[in-house]
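Private note to self, pasted from the team thread so I don't lose it. Backbone tokens:
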């Protein structure tokens, strides 16, 4: 038969089935690809000349990226999905039962359905190149491995390892995959041809030593196995909202099918997958995946000379230290401007602490960490900066001090160097006024903690060049971040939308609800933490400073809750960094409510219901987000929703802040905002855009013409 996506060759009995999906940059297991594989299997089963079959990829950096997500997204009928899975499983079962040994040769990303196909091979070998990334990422799309992965993985690598991969969607390298028994051998990429030949010969000569499968005695007995599932469920309950259904469904499938035959297990997997794939949560998460892929393309076409390699950081507070660690990991040089040289020890300690995770998880060696730390150099005089490509300021939120810092930097830096500010709220236009080279100045707003938060807001001034933006985007992506372009205004996007959420929680607290009842309600909605826990994490002083800047810029609708001012000014509370805020934070990580705050509050009895707490806190965010759209602070509703998920932890299963607004209805939101305006004041006045959407019977996702002209 004529093959489109596979090339089959045979060299003296060593056959190679090379996957090369036509007109695509990556290999995906689409329905067309799987149909072609099914037809190929008819001849492969009968080819007696084949002694060993190698499964390889012709794509750079990719083995198989997984199933075609677009096809999953478009499927709406549960029975259709189930029937398709039955057909796919039959194909993979046939591949697994070929009458000769099969070897998956992995030299690139092996994800999802690609890993499930690799599991059908008798052996898996891989290079140790950084491009080799192995994962079951389906959980992040609201589903779980549906091509037999929930059945074959536990049998191969043991229940505990399989649950760890499937329920988290984590990515592992070849070394870790070998350690848990997922692959049989790994080697340097430069040795690929030789090592593959050596591995094949060991099979042909029957000298290959079969590795013992990872075994945990707890998996052998029913009652101890049940303990593993119970602990896994407990961990999910602690970390994963119940509306994020994928991990719970995957755990149930593995629990109910463990020990069953492959046929029975695959049947259960297919039924559960089909039911999950049609849920709104899965559709929302798949949409977010495509949005993230779209955002990754921003400014990729822009050309510029000399990418950023040598960096400088001014400021070594919490944010400054996080940025220093990030640049030490990804840039060639990090020059640190200190107020006094005695601060060096604190920086080394903080940076080393962030690297300790990589040593503990064996992702880096101590020598590699020492090499990274040697990239740091220090000055207290703005010297040694002549060769710097990119300098960022991360000092306190004070315009005068920041502007003075930029002038000192500009005097020492090369005229082509970019100067950035990590300000969280001050206008970039206003900060750029004293600079000679305004075209090479912009805002680069990281979120705390820098080592974990993927989002970075990039805020150009009216003078910033496209080249400066493009260079910054490229560098941030190299640092593993997701940069997003945001217009210049007080608070930019995320803080401008988020601070009203924290502020409204303060107003609700004033009215008579408790700190715990408010935080628990917002967590139940799906927020990663309650508003008061968030205030403690950010720092009450930092949050109040930003809130004051927003109040100065936007007036009464951003009026600061008296609770926030009281805990800072009267009780002198700073939050988690000082051990006391709305909660008392113990060194072992435990928290208890700070009862001193309740003592200072008036005993009001206007207690809000859980529904009203959610509506007030979330709707005030929706209202401010709609203003950001109509003012052009961000151009696309999809980008806004992604930013709120990546920057604030808004529940991804809801699709984003404005997708949630569309789902519950614009009429409902406007009516509630008008009611709250009468009860609580001007801060709930609906935006012009919300009224336009209501009048034109549009949603945020269908009404783009109402704000983009």
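Design output:
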């Amino acid at each position: 038969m004529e093959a489109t996506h596979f090339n089959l060759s045979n060299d003296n009995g060593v056959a190679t089935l090379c996957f090369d999906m036509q007109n695509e940059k990556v290999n995906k297991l689409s329905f067309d690809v799987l149909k072609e594989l099914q037809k190929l299997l008819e001849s492969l089963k009968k080819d007696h000349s084949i002694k060993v079959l190698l499964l390889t990829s012709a794509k750079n950096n990719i083995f198989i990226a997984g199933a075609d997500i677009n096809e999953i997204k478009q499927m709406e009928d549960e029975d259709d999905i189930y029937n398709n899975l039955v057909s796919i499983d039959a194909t993979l079962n046939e591949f697994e039962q070929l009458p000769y040994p099969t070897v998956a040769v992995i030299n690139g990303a092996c994800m999802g359905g690609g890993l499930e196909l690799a599991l059908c091979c008798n052996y898996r070998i891989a290079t140790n190149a950084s491009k080799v990334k192995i994962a079951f990422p389906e959980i992040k799309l609201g589903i779980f491995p549906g091509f037999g992965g929930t059945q074959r993985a536990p049998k191969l690598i043991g229940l505990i390892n399989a649950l760890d991969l499937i329920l988290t969607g984590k990515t592992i390298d070849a070394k870790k995959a070998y350690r848990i028994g997922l692959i049989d051998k790994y080697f340097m990429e430069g040795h690929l041809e030789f090592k593959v030949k050596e591995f094949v010969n060991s099979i042909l000569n029957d000298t290959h030593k079969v590795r013992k499968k990872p075994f945990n005695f707890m998996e052998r007995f029913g009652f101890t196995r049940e303990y593993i599932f119970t602990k896994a469920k407990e961990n999910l309950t602690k970390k994963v909202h119940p509306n994020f259904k994928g991990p719970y469904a995957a755990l149930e499938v593995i629990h109910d099918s463990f020990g069953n035959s492959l046929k029975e297990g695959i049947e259960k997997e297919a039924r559960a997958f089909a039911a999950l794939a049609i849920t709104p949560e899965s559709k929302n998460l798949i949409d977010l995946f495509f949005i993230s892929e779209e955002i990754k393309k921003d400014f990729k076409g822009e050309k510029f000379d000399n990418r950023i390699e040598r960096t400088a950081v001014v400021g070594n507070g919490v944010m400054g230290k996080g940025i220093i660690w990030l640049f030490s990991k990804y840039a060639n040089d990090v020059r640190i401007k200190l107020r006094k040289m005695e601060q060096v020890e604190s920086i080394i300690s903080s940076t080393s602490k962030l690297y300790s995770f990589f040593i503990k998880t064996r992702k880096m060696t101590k020598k590699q960490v020492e090499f990274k730390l040697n990239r740091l150099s220090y000055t207290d005089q703005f010297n040694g900066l002549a060769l710097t490509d990119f300098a960022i300021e991360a000092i306190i939120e004070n315009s005068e001090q920041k502007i003075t810092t930029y002038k000192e930097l500009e005097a020492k830096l090369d005229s082509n160097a970019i100067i950035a500010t990590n300000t969280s709220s001050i206008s970039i236009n206003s900060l750029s006024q004293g600079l000679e080279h305004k075209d090479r100045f912009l805002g680069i707003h990281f979120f705390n903690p820098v080592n974990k938060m993927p989002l970075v807001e990039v805020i150009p001034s009216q003078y910033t060049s496209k080249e400066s933006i493009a260079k910054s985007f490229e560098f941030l992506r190299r640092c593993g971040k997701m940069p997003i372009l945001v217009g210049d205004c007080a608070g930019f996007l995320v803080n401008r939308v988020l601070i009203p959420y924290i502020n409204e929680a303060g107003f609700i607290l004033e009215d008579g609800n408790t700190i715990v009842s408010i935080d628990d309600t917002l967590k139940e909605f799906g927020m990663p933490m309650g508003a008061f826990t968030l205030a403690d994490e950010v720092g009450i002083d930092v949050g109040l400073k930003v809130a004051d800047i927003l109040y100065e810029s936007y007036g009464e609708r951003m009026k600061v809750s008296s609770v926030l001012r009281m805990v800072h000014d009267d009780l002198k509370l700073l939050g988690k960094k000082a051990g006391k805020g709305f909660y008392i934070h113990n060194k072992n990580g435990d928290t208890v409510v700070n009862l001193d705050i309740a003592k200072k509050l008036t005993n009001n009895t206007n207690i809000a219901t859980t529904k009203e707490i959610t509506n007030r806190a979330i709707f005030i965010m929706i209202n401010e987000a709609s203003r950001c759209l109509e003012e052009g602070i961000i151009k696309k509703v999809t980008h806004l929703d992604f930013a709120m998920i990546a920057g604030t932890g808004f529940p991804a299963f809801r699709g984003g802040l404005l997708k949630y607004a569309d789902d519950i209805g614009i009429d409902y939101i406007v009516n509630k905002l008008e009611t709250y305006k009468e009860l609580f004041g001007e801060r709930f006045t609906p935006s012009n855009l919300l009224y336009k959407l209501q009048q034109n019977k549009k949603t945020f996702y269908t009404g783009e013409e109402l704000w983009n002209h």
